Each structure stands twice: as C-alpha cells, then as structure tokens.
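Could you please consider the sequence and fold following this short note?
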Amino acid sequence: MATKINTVSARDALKLRREPYWHLVTKGKFLGYRKMTIGPGGTWITRGLDESTGKQNYHALGAFLDVPDNERFNAAFKTAQDWFGHIGSGGSKVVLTLGEACQRYIDKARAEGRESGAVDLEGRFRRWVFSDAKLSNTPVMKLTAGMMNDWRNKLVKTPAIEQDKTKKATKPRAASSINREMAVLKAALNLALEDGHATSDTAWKTKLRPIKDATQRRDCYLDMDQRRALIASAPADLAALITALSLIPLRPGAVAALTAGSFDKRLSVLTVGKDKAGRDRKITLPSSTASFFAAQAKDKLPTAPLIARADGKFWNKDSWKDPFKAAAKAADLPAAAVAYNLRHSAITDLIALHRLDTMTVAQLSGTSVSMIDKHYGHLLRDHAATGLGKLALF
C-alpha cells in the first residue's frame, strides 16, 4: 500500500529514512519525498523507467522551501509532470542552469571564431546574469515568465553607466540598449531550447520581446558637406576614423577592429573579419579609397590597428564617443549625431544616389537583404516611382 505524502500531516508522520516515499504520477513514473530530518525540510525526487534501457532514472527536484509547506506537494507534483513531459518529448536529461546556458552561448561564439563577440557576451552576461547568483543557478526548465519579467524590469530601471566614472549614473537606459541585452539572453535561451534543455520558450518568448522603434540611430543623415565639416573639426586620429566610416558602409566597431594586415595593397582588397555578420568578407576598393587605406597601413605591423588612435591603440566606442561629440558640435551638426550615422549615411547614398542593388549593399555593409529592405526600402520605392514616371506617354 502506498504511503501518503500529499499532506503536511502525512509527511510529518513519516519515519526518517534515506529511501524516498513514492507517489504515483502516471504509469512507471513516480514523485518521491525523502525525509531525513524532523520538520518540513524534506526533499523531492522523481523516478521513471527508461524503457529503452530498462533502468530507473532519478531526478532531484529540490526542497521547495520558497513554497508554503501545505502547497509543496502540488508544486513538486507539477514540476515532476513537467520533467516527465520534457524527457518524454526527447529533452536532455542534463539539468542546465541559466548561467550555464549563457556560458554555452559564449563558448559557441568562440568556437565559431567570433572572439570579439564572445568577449562582448561575457561582459553582458557578467553584468546581468552571472551577478545574480539565484537567477544564474536556476535551471532553464524552471524559469518562469515572472522571473524573466523581473529581470527585464531590473534592466530597465538600472541607469546607464556614465562615461565620467566620478559621476553617479542617473541617465535612463536607452531602449536600444535594453533590446541588445534582451536579445543576447534570448539567443542563449533559444540555444538551450534547441539543444533539448527546455521544451518550451513560454517563460521568455513574450517577456524578452524587443521594444518597438527603439533604434533611432539611422534617423540622422549627414550629407557630404556635413561629413567633410566633421572631418575638418576632428583631431587627426579621429578624422581618419571618420573618413574610413564615410568611405565604406561598415559598423564603427568593425572599422575600429581592422588591422594593417586586413588591407591587401597589391589587390586593393579589404578583409573585414570582425563584424556583426560574424564571418570574414572581402571588399574590393576603388583606387581613391585604396590609397587612403594604404596610407593608414604604411609602416605598420600586420597586427597593428589599421585606423589607430594617437597613442597607437585600437579605437573603441568609449574612446571615440566624447571626441566625436566635440567634433560634431564644432561642425554644427545635429545634437543627435553619432558615429553610427556615418554608416547610415553611406548606405543611404549607395541606394538613393548611386542606385546600387540591395544585395550588393547588404554584402558591403555586412547585413541581410531583409534588413536593408526594412530600413531603406522607401528609397527603392522612390526609384520605382521615378522609373514609372519615365514611362508616361503624355
């Protein structure tokens, strides 16, 4: 006869022993309660028959101490059902925590040769996941929409870090910044789901949904005169970076990461090996642009920065941000102008003025055709209207 474990009084009456007391969940699958101390501190475990091997598999569920004693059986029973469903649908028997899921995503980026991306991920997860031991140690299977909502709210309420470390952070975090943090966590969780460490993305699918219209960087277009004024107002090292960003439609971080070895003077080819696209690509440069990069690469070791700061170091967003703002102000540019606007302006000109097709622009800029269509499709529609206008008979 089975021993009752579904009430507090029944569990209190049990004798102490290592062997769990079992409760049938469904045929061949059981929920167990192990009582080894007096009081409500017992632990819960599952037992299920693996029909392929004929062996019993055990899985610890924990003590559920955060649940009132009179509700622990129901909580454990529901968790056991979820576990058996997970295993029954082909899920992994390895319990993966959120922290481990994030680390696996970092390792994947590194294995694919995206070292810079891996370093970036490490920084993001260190700030927003690994620093929260309770959340980081929560199994992916046990994540709830409430946990993800709390994580998102914490992210939203945390002020952005000031460039001046002596000042207290008070500036609200930008929606685009929030989206980037949510995107990498969601990607790590989706990888865990793909690999069978969860059977549903219900916990994070809606709670980590990006904020709409968060990215405003593309809205500020700088024309040729404004770009020239910006270059003229910048110190020599920053002027070189701005020039490079004006000549090729790359992300600022990708240009900053180029080495002297990235440019082949003999073939006038630039190899972009560090970009959001995650893979090397080669761009054949026109003579004027090739001459500029040849001058930047002159007398440098292959591993040295192609576009270097005055101290010979690589540029990064922290080192160019304030000098760029100062140069933009001196050039009387819009207050919203940032380095990324140069990429947007270059892509806009390639499509609107020089009428390059979207596939070529996508390849040059290291993004997808769908993204070009999404953000620059209106320029193509203008071309179409102009073309149709030329068909007019009267």
Remarks:
- The beta strands are 21-26, 29-34, 43-50, 55-62, 263-264, 269-272, 281-284.
- The chain has three domains: 8-88, 98-205, 218-389.
- The radius of gyration is 29 Å.
